[in-house]
Amino acid sequence: MEILEPEDARSWIKAAALLITENAHMLTELDTAIGDGDHGENMMRGFKAIEKKLETGAPPADLAGLFKLVGMTLLSSVGGAAGPLYGGFFLAVSKACAGKKNLNKTELGQALAEGLADIQRRGKAVLGDKTMVDALAPALQAFRTFPDGDLAGALKAAAEQARRSAEATVPLQARKGRASYLGERSIGHQDPGATSSWLLLQALASVPEAAP
Amino acid sequence: MPELIHIGVMKKLINSPQDVVREELEGMEAAHGDRLRINYDPVYIVRKDAPIKGKVGLVSGGGSGHEPMHGGYVGKGMLDAACPGQVFTSPTPDQMDEASKAVNGGAGILHIVKNYTGDVMNFDLAKEMLQADGIAVETVLTDDDVAVENSLYTAGRRGVGLTVLMEKLLGAAAEQRMSLAEIKKLGDFIRSSGRSMGMALTPCTVPHAGKPSFELPEDEIELGIGIHGEPGRRRVKFAPADELTEMLMAPILSDLPFKKGDDVLLFVNGMGGTPLIELYIIYRKAAQIAKDFSLHIVRNLVGSYITSLEMAGTSITLLRMNDQLCKLWDAPVDTPGLRWS
Fold first, then answer.
1. What's residue A133's pLDDT?
2. What domains are there in chain A, each with its CATH number?
3. With an 8 Å Cβ cutoff, are A84 and B88 in contact?
4. Within this chain, do residues B108 and B253 fall inside the same structural domain, yes or no?
5. Between chains, do A79 and B118 touch, taking CB under 8 Å as contact?
């Protein structure tokens, strides 16, 4: 696979909904340790709302429309900090897709970078604060440095890096979000936001594998 | 008939975890439908007589589980609308956008926002949406929790007990037709004049989590808790009420800092599972400490006004007062959660 078509994007979102649902309990467990124990439930509610919209209405045919629907639905159904952050991420990705029928590797990298920039603008987190940025930024780096032409390989590398980076949040002390109130007691736990970010990238990496 | 639910260690008067917020709102509508209107999609609670022409619309919101805050403070002399989220989860921008429009009497909208990452981001988005529609919006933050020691390396201090006082005082100011700019200025002044500190004897259980938010040994308490069942800054050995009150009062007094001769409002709050008999024992000692410090307690409030589900514990808030704030405090208020004439 070298190009992300609208149908691939729909597969991504469906795969993400499935992965989030399967792992909702795990996300909530992580969030109970250092947050307020609602991340899995909130993410699952958001992606279920997206699935419902995709099933009932006529799903948008173009990339920008699809990602806008995803972003707006997350904004209005997730709540907490994850709602604006992931909602904003997909809205920024949508803007980057405006007027494009599909995305090559460079364009997808650009769109994901726009999404990450929105998360950092809104959340003001930098690398090492023990947030979703700690999974997304290194993953994006891995994606962009992967040789051109092999989108499937780049996505796989990104997901793999996101998993490792999410795991690497365990020894960090949180400096953003509700976990930051724990101070040193936030050390020793994996960040739930970094973990859900990994799941979203894992879902994206599964698209080429599932494609015929 | 309510049904007692046993799910593991959870024993709550609910029907099912996912229906908690909706059914609570239906109950509020049944009880207070004469003065409140509940909108269910998106969810917000609004004064029945809103919008009031020429009055600044006061809107607040936050996760559920802190009752009576915020929905219980909707009414004459306090909030025009409140947006409840899921339990301990910030509400969403579409709720805030529509609630603000429902109470827009042409004099602008003021959002009262507790300083939590989610609340701040969602209210920011709502503000952008409202401003895009040409509506004047200002925001007042509350971040009165002195337990958060190093704001540089955290999300900043949390909004806790001062939020209740803020909603009452600004509600009275709006009722007197103060302008949006004046109310914003007053709110920032109140923000800079109040400090709080809380402690928990027990954790609480979020309905959909089904188990306690943290574990606490029999002989320990959590000092410096917020209002979301999150653990505090540190654990200390359980001690008599007077000693615990000292542990709460000392950091509050030194933080602002309060000065000898200050007029203050002393607010002793219950976290949801602590009876009034114990809150008065706390108040007794807190008042004594304040007097020993040469503070004049000119107003007070004792009771469970900003809670964390069934958590046992207390928080203390001190607000430096002046004549204007005393008059605003005494002004009539008529809401389900706070009422005097």
1. 97
2. 3-207 (1.25.40.340)
3. no
4. no
5. yes
Residue B13 lies in a domain: no
B6 is catalytic: no
B66 is catalytic: yes
Query: What b/e readout covers A55-77, taking b as 16+ CB neighbours within 10 angstroms?
Result: eeeeebebbbebbbbbbbbbbbb
Report residue B19 as tokens: 């229906």
Of A28, A42, A75, the CB nearest to B93: A75
Asked if residue B262 and residue B168 are part of one domain, the reply reads no
CB B106: neighbour CB atoms within 10 A? 13
Q: Are residues B78 and B31 both part of a single domain?
A: yes
Instruction: Provide the Cα torsion B120, B111, B233, B194; round to 10°.
Output: 140
B166 shares its domain with B87 = yes
Q: What is the pLDDT of residues A122-163, one digit of tens each?
A: 999 999 999 999 999 999 999 999 988 899 999 999 999 999
Q: State the pLDDT at residue B35.
A: 95
Q: Which of A79, A180, A181 is the closest to B89 by Cβ?
A: A79
What distances in angstroms separate CA B40 from CA A121, B23, B37, B44, B85, one per listed residue? 32, 11, 10, 7, 12
Listed residues B133, B167, B192: the one ending a domain:
B192
Query: How confident is the prediction for chain B on average, in pLDDT?
Result: 93
- 8 Å CB contact between A193 and A210: no
- Cis, peptide link before residue A208, omega less than 30° from 0: no
**A174 has pLDDT over 70:** yes
Structural domain boundaries enclosing B204: 194-330
CATH number at B148 reads 3.40.50.10440
The answer to whether A105 and A119 are in contact (CB under 8 A) is no
What was the ipTM of the complex prediction? 0.80
For residues A38 and B87, is the Cβ–Cβ distance under 8 A?
yes
| A178: contact with B, CB 8 A cutoff | yes
Q: Based on the structure, what is the number of domains in chain B?
A: 2
